[in-house]
Specification:
It is a single chain. A hairpin with a 5-residue loop joins β16 and β17. The protein is mostly beta strands. It is globular, with a radius of gyration of 21 Å. Helix content is 10%, strand content 44%. The strands form 5 sheets. The chain has a 7-stranded antiparallel sheet, with no helix packed on it. The longest helix is centred in the N-terminal third of the chain and has 29 residues.
Length: 374
């Protein structure tokens, strides 16, 4: 009996040892935690957003959640900066802290003309919960703000309320991004800033866009999707000024929905399903890559699973999203929200939520090598 017990304990101990080895291996090789739970007095970091400035500074934003990982409560917007393409990073600094209230949904975009970084965000009372806001029983409404930086993200303007310009009176919930916006390049709408957003009205979920034609000073409400059952979305500009909106989908098929615009985001076409882009109902990121020396393509990142928030994957399309020929699995374990970015050296990088037991243990940064795509 003692011999059997000894072997059982030995086997159990060996199993624990192997598990710990796999955990440390995952954290050391597959994961590169940039924001980690417990850092700087914050219980949880969520909602990644990332951009590269005109001067090549990489700015990584996140929601820093003070007391827990909940979407409500005391939440600050924070940033880390990299001056060497993501190899090393600055310490955390706060972009926006409004006492115990919720400052979230970072949606940054870089103005190529001025070099300014424009950051769209949403706000609500920390005591109000999403369900209360949706039902109209909250003490305050969900509001929309804009901040800006002219010094590579080192300092930020005071948050400015633009709710009345971009939100209809009967809309309850509202979210900017989360993830980067874009600046258009086509002739007719050149330099227009476009931010993908979503809202709820009469308990129905829609995606929409907002835009600015003057570098982020004045914002206007763009078009809303013709039908509901979608919300968090990402936008890319395809050739000839065509905008592609890619949306989180609430129907039972567990695939992404898409819509297009030929008028700079002022109207959106009927929704179409992209059956090649499966999802577990989660935010995603999309980016048009057009960098010298490489064939242009559309990139997309999300947890590529219809059952769970796992298997963070980046896919590439060389025909503007009609098909997705190449992919790279970044991490097979728990993973959720993500944002793609082009680094100063021309490589892609993905900034995404991931962990060993939970997708919300931290936000990791990973530079991608094109030769690894299959």
């Amino acid at each position: 009996m003692r011999l059997k017990l000894f072997f059982r304990k030995s086997i159990k101990g060996f199993s624990v040892f192997i598990f710990l080895i796999s955990v440390f291996s995952a954290m050391g090789q597959d994961l590169n935690p940039l924001f980690k739970s417990g850092e700087n007095g914050y219980k949880c970091f969520r909602i990644p957003a990332i951009v590269t400035t005109n001067k090549g500074t990489v700015l990584a934003f996140a929601e820093a959640r003070k007391n827990n990982c909940s979407d409500a409560g005391d939440i600050d917007l924070v940033i880390k900066r990299s001056f060497d393409g993501g190899k090393t990073w600055s310490k955390i600094s706060i972009v926006w802290d409004d006492a115990e209230n919720t400052c979230g949904n970072p949606a940054p975009v870089v103005d190529r003309k001025t070099g300014n970084i424009i950051l769209l965000s949403t706000w609500n009372l920390g005591t109000d919960r999403e369900e209360q806001i949706i039902n109209g029983t909250s003490k305050e409404s969900r509001r929309v703000y804009v901040l800006s930086s002219s010094d590579e993200g080192n300092s930020w303007s005071t948050a400015r309320d633009i709710t009345s310009d971009v939100k209809m009176p009967d809309w309850t919930w509202y979210a900017t991004g989360p993830g980067n916006g874009i600046q258009m390049r086509s002739k007719k709408y050149k330099n227009r800033l476009v931010i993908p957003c979503d809202h709820i009205v009469s308990k129905k979920y829609y995606s929409h866009s907002i835009y600015s034609d003057d570098g982020g000073l004045i914002w206007k409400l763009g078009g809303t999707t013709p039908t509901d059952m979608v919300n968090e979305c990402t936008v890319a500009e395809l050739p000839k000024g065509k905008l592609l909106l890619n949306m989180r989908n609430y129907n039972s098929l567990r695939v992404r929905q898409t819509s297009t615009s030929m008028d700079g985001g002022e109207t959106w076409s009927d929704l179409q399903q992209d059956t090649a882009l499966i999802e577990p109902v989660c935010q995603a990121s999309m980016l048009w890559y057009d960098h010298k020396g490489r064939r242009p393509f559309l990139a997309f990142s999300n947890p590529a699973s219809q059952k769970s928030r796992t298997n963070m994957t980046v896919k590439i399309s060389f025909n503007q999203g009609k098909s997705w020929k190449e992919k790279l699995v970044l991490y097979e374990g728990p993973a959720a929200y993500s944002n793609l970015v082009i680094l100063p050296n021309g490589n892609l990088a993905c900034f995404y939520e991931a962990g060993i037991k939970s997708a919300y243990e931290g936000i990791v940064f990973k530079e991608l090598i094109f030769d690894d795509f299959k």
